[in-house]
Amino acid sequence: MSRQANDDQERLPLEQGVDLSISRECVYRKFKDHPGPCPHCGKPLRQWTAVYLVATRRGDVPSDTFVISNDDGWFCTHCPTLVINPDEISDFLQMAKPGWDIGEEFALLGIVDLDTVPDDKQHLSLSDPDCPLPLVEFRNLHRSKQSSSTRRPPRSRTQRKKRRRRKR
Ligand SMILES: [Zn+2]
Hints:
Blueprint: H1 8-11, E1 25-28, E2 45-58, E3 61-76, E4 81-84, H2 86-94, E5 105-112, E6 135-137, H3 141-147
The protein binds zinc ion (ZN).
Residues 38, 40-41, 43, 76, 78-79, 81 line the site of zinc ion (ZN).
């Protein structure tokens, strides 16, 4: 690894680290300070910095898609579960840069696995169109969409196709 600004690896031994390359189930849970144990397996969760792809919308209209980086995610090191406090993401989005269309609702689509960006692209900003965006989608993405639209007629997959746009 030739990246210099990566001090995460020094903070924790690698085997206790969080594998950001596996597809996880994202659980939204409101909590104060600590989310408690993993909702699936009961093992401890570990707070970890990650980069997320977020989609926002107003009503049914998608407003924007962008990349955020923060340590709001609590990862289970024993099963592929991630706990996120939606209030913290919401706060984060409130402070977002002018020009971003934050919309009224948001959904985290997945984790951007920066380690898989090739070495010759690592100097690029994530907003650079030449930079590949290696998204690891959350595995429960489609299920949660389903449950939030129970009162609606059957979904049309083509209408829900997600738009990927990058902000500069
Ligand atoms: Zn777990």
